[in-house]
Amino acid sequence: MGWFKRKIHPEFYNAYAETFKYNSTPLQTTRFVVFDTETTGLNTKTDKILSIGCVAITDGIIDVADSFECYLIQSQFNVDTVKIHGILKSGTIIKIEQREAIIQFLDYIKNAVIVAHHAAFDVAMINQALKQMDLPKLKNKVIDTGQLYKKTKYVKNQKHYSLDTLCNTFNIVMHDRHTASGDAYLTAVLFLKLSALLKAKKNRALKLRDFLNY
Fold first, then answer.
1. Hey, what domains does the chain have and what are their CATH numbers?
2. What is the pTM of this model?
């Protein structure tokens, strides 16, 4: 019988995991990272990440100085999705390998609470990239603005509400739509509006039960 061996992860992943040992920040001062991915398609198993865009929220304020953006070298190309995200296989944009993008992403987010619109997809894309690197899934708590919208009791059905729909509902001007950084910023504005609405309608701020794990 072989001895159980603890899996050894690379230093960058250990540094990321280490940040969760100090995750006792009060919710009011929690760092939220709103993020979005642009991808070659919607299959989380076979499609690839083209870009990642993030912006942080601290103390209820979007901090554009605390942001992250990267473009990935494309190992595959889907011409049908270019008309959506506008990312070409070649061009002048500096692109990095997926491994380096994930390393930088983990270093940026640390133990922040992740926010995304229909977050399951974006988180699954990151987790798939981590799996390809033989690493565990993201450890971060997640808030889905689509689910948060339903918790405001603004609606009672289970309809899928797109980012476009909710931006129009809340009069959010849609600049840079369908870029990862642009969509992250729009989602950040939506998140703050939903948080304020939730507090007004339910007489409560965000609570841990609003957080998800994927």
1. 26-210 (3.30.420.10)
2. 0.86
